[in-house]
Amino acid sequence: MNIGDVAARSGLPAKTIRYYEDIGLVTPKRSENGYRAFAEADLHKLAFLARARALGFSIEDCRALLGLYEDDARASADVRKLAVSHLAEIEDKIAQLREMQATLQVLVDACHGDNRPDCPILAGLSTTPRGG
Amino acid sequence: MNIGDVAARSGLPAKTIRYYEDIGLVTPKRSENGYRAFAEADLHKLAFLARARALGFSIEDCRALLGLYEDDARASADVRKLAVSHLAEIEDKIAQLREMQATLQVLVDACHGDNRPDCPILAGLSTTPRGG
DNA sequence: TCTTGACCTTACAGTGACTGGAAGCCTTAT
DNA sequence: ATAAGGCTTCCAGTCACTGTAAGGTCAAGA
């Protein structure tokens, strides 16, 4: 398979696949013409990566996950640990975003949004938030 | 005020303040010794920026917000529009993170997490997600 | 006066995970 | 023969900083 084929089948842009080769996540062989020659195993890896990335795992997490995936003697506890820690990160991010959302929603609700300059949003940004 | 003072009072690292000067968000005067000499107005701007950034606005949004803030003839509708659009982005991100969270939670719950290699998390990553 | 240490300056490189673009080679179809 | 499309490499740009190096400035103490 050429890079265009694996791109179509993995859902990853060709650019990204080249990048993944650069950083050593996949190591496709080369055809005589210099083109990357992907095996089914490479495609499988790339699809794995695409799914892990879609779940928000960092590249380094993905590298670790791939390593565990290919290690028949892995302990599922190691995988679970990675996933749990990533879940915690996700929850942190959600919490942060919810705080932003709540604060901003209050300001937006307070703003009449017409052509007058008076604006509670700017007022809120220009003064110390009432922290209690 | 020197940069250390405004850093302490705005909560922004000195590095970040220099960066904000580089990209034209603030333009402090200079003392004869070459040090940045911040006025109260600069500090106020930086605190504004710190709060807008804490709400997740991009630097370019912040630039626009600052422009509106300093424009006495602004329409509050313009500010509101920016804020509403940013709120939508926040909500999108939350929704995406919640999807990741849900998927990952299912996998984590299914994983016994002991020293056996059998692992539903890796299995889930290695096969096409059942999409319904 | 000298020194120490904290503060300030610039400039350049690195982060994460790509993405875009230029310049050029290879393949396939007409 | 040529044109279109796919492939190659390499370099630069994104976003918002952050780290580091090399050096200038200032206030306090011996």
UniProtKB/TrEMBL annotation, chains A, B:
Q: Where is the HTH merR-type domain?
A: 1-68
Supply the SMART domains for this chain: HTH_MERR (SM00422)
One annotated GO molecular function is: DNA binding
An example of a Gene Ontology cellular component annotation for this protein is: cytoplasm
Keywords recorded for this protein, A-Z: Cytoplasm, DNA-binding, Transcription, Transcription regulation
Q: Which Gene3D superfamilies match?
A: 1.10.1660.10
**Is Cell cycle tagged as a keyword?**
no
Q: Which InterPro entries match?
A: CueR, DNA-bd_dom_put_sf, MerR-type_HTH_dom, MerR_fam, Tscrpt_reg_MerR_DNA-bd
Q: Where in the cell is it found?
A: Cytoplasm
UniProt keyword Ion transport present: no
Q: Which domain of life is it from?
A: Bacteria
**Annotated Pfam families:** MerR, MerR-DNA-bind
Grouped into one coarse class, the protein's main location is: cytoplasm
One of the GO BP terms on file:
positive regulation of DNA-templated transcription
Database matches in NCBIfam families? CueR (TIGR02044)
Protein name in the entry: Cu(I)-responsive transcriptional regulator
Organismal lineage: Bacteria, Pseudomonadati, Pseudomonadota, Alphaproteobacteria, Rhodobacterales
